[in-house]
Amino acid sequence: MNILDLVKKEQGMLPERYRNMSTELMKNRVREIKEKFGDDLFIPGHHYQKDEVIEFADATGDSLQLAQAAANTSATNIVFCGVHFMAETADILTNENQVVVLPDMRAGCSMADMADIHQTERAWKKLVEVFGDTMLPLTYVNSTAAIKAFCGERGGATVTSSNAHKMVNWAFSQKERVLFLPDQHLGRNTAYDLGVPLEEMAVWNPLTDELEFEGNPEKVKVILWKGHCSVHEKFTLENIRHLRETEPEMNIIVHPECTWEVVQKSDASGSTKKIIETIESAPAGSKWAIGTEMNLVNRIIANHPDKEIVSLNPNMCPCLTMNRIDLPHLLWALESIESGEAINRIQVEKYVAKQAIAALDKMLANA
Question: How many CB atoms lie within 10 A of CB 212?
Fold first, then answer.
């Protein structure tokens, strides 16, 4: 192996030969390896993945569904087609004999990156000075293993968009206040649905280390971390206004990672699972505008030719980090396992995993 090959291997770069292989050849090789390993290989695929990847997934779903699938599989080899925090969760929930691989280490999540452990520990220290022992931390699963462990250490839990309402209700049964991170929009939309007025929500800004709130802090019930999804923030009130004017019969359903204003002006909101189920149960001929990631929207459109379906934002692009994983990277990961030298293995430190699993267990118990 020459120096360039060594550098590429260290950096997790896709070998050139995969870029030159035909799609047919790559698909045939994936099928061969899946058949060879049988039940000893498990490929979970998130809804936002490309069709060329979803085609080979053994299970598809949102974060909660895939977390449950990872916890239940007995396969030795897990090739996680999602993003980094999802693969971390799979490693946490599986045993030491199971290997979790992420086909492309660049498949991260900008939202998860908006809350690192150092920022969170600083924030907690300052917030305790204000609120004392009245807070319970909840973190969206779109967060690092270290943030999950932070919540687990303090009696908190993880949540997904599917069970956020249950988990926030649970948190309020434990403490007077909730720190919700890293997605302010999911936190705000969930708390509002549960009857918490906007006037009782504050925002923690990790860049300035300040609590953004006007008034008496004693009134604060929810502290929202100032983070967001770069995809879902691109759905706007202007998108809705345009649709109402041009297509008044169109139903609008959006993901709760969208802003509060967008969710309020839509007809419905919910997790990817809820969006899929809503469209599936809708009558033929109904019209829908969907506010979520474009790969999923396109797949829903293809699966429901009897309905008129569009993206709420016609200029929306797929999630760029989720799209890092493609057929060449999937094959590379599978062939590395076949050769006995798995690349891009995800391994969470034992102490972090132990604390994180406490938070994850609370979520799974409320699924």
Answer: 12
